[in-house]
Amino acid sequence: MKYVAEQGFFPTGAGTETEGQKKSVMAPECGQLIIEILKEDLTAPRKQRHAAQRIVERLRRGKGCTGSCRTVAGYVADAGKRIVPRGGFAEMCWAPATAQVYFGHGEALDATGATVKLLVLVVGLPYSNARYCRPLYGRTAECLTLGFHTIYDHVGFVPSVQVFGNATSAGRRIGDRIRESEVFTRFRIRHGFEAGYCNLYSGK
Questions:
Q1: Is 105:136 a contact under the CB 8 Å cutoff?
Q2: Residue 128 falls within a domain, yes or no?
Q3: What is the span of the domain harbouring residue 48?
Q4: Which CATH number covers residue 182?
Q5: Mean per-residue pLDDT for 129-157?
Q6: pLDDT per residue over 153-195, tens digit each?
Q7: Are residues 111 and 182 in the same domain?
Q8: How far is residue 138 from each of residues 151, 161, 168, 199, 201, measured CA to CA in Å?
Q9: 117 and 61 in one domain?
Q10: 39 and 109: one domain?
Q11: Would you say residue 161 lies in a domain?
């Protein structure tokens, strides 16, 4: 019964922040610092980005904020979802008479019945969803042009734009420039098509 007449059960000033009192890690200024750190990390090398412990240390040192690593880690995870760019997808649109060109691998039986490994020149026409293959014994520029001749004769036309993947016999990247082989350049000019390149270091 001694508590019946009591008017308040909290110390005077409870619930208010006194001068010099440490701020909660979720205080606006602490949250803003976390956002700034995460934005800095977007352009920093992966190994130099902040772990939760480092963020806690910066909060305590710079803003006088409190909070455990677990609390900060949860806040960082939520904030990261808002500021880190999300991966996106775009539909690839290919114009008519545009071809994708790359080399694959295959096996075949020779005249003696033995299994031999072959390179396969693949010319795809994404617009019409067609694909043509020509097995070759090598990936030199001469082999490449021979394969093209066979495929062109079969389809009845030469694609006006041809994008090369791992066909290093057509062109190689040297520094920031692409250098085509002389044989292929002559072949391309003769047939009047434009060449594009990607992934030139693959399949050497």
A1: no
A2: yes
A3: 28-83
A4: 3.30.420.10
A5: 92
A6: 999 999 999 999 877 788 777 767 788 889 999 999 999 999 9
A7: yes
A8: 16, 24, 12, 19, 17
A9: no
A10: no
A11: yes
156/179 Cα distance (integer angstroms): 29
Give Cα separations from 196 to 88, 161, 173, 201 (angstroms): 24, 7, 12, 14
Q: Phi first, then psi: what are they for 107, rounded to 5°?
A: -125, 150
Tokens 């080399």 -> residue: 103
d(CA 123, CA 90): 23
The one-letter amino acid at 69: C
Q: Side chain identity at 166, as an amino acid letter?
A: N
- CB count within 10 Å of CB 69 equals 14
- Are 76 and 137 part of one and the same domain? no
Q: In what order do the strands lie in the sheet with 115-125?
A: 130-136, 115-125, 98-109, 161-164, 194-197
Looking at the domain assignment, is residue 7 inside a domain? no
Count of residues in the chain = 204
Q: Does residue 4 belong to any structural domain of this protein? A: no
Read off the pLDDT of residues 56-99 as tens digits, 9 standing for 90 and up.
888 777 766 766 777 777 877 787 777 766 666 666 778 899 99
Assess contact for 124 and 99: CB atoms under 8 A: yes
CA geometry: angle at 192 spanning 191 and 198, to 5°? 100
d(CA 163, CA 190): 17
Element (H, E) at 179: strand 177-180
Give which of 163, 155, 133, 152 is closest to 191, Cα–Cα. 152
115, 192: one domain: yes
Looking at residue 199, its pLDDT comes to 61
* Cα 113 from Cα 105, distance rounded (Å): 19
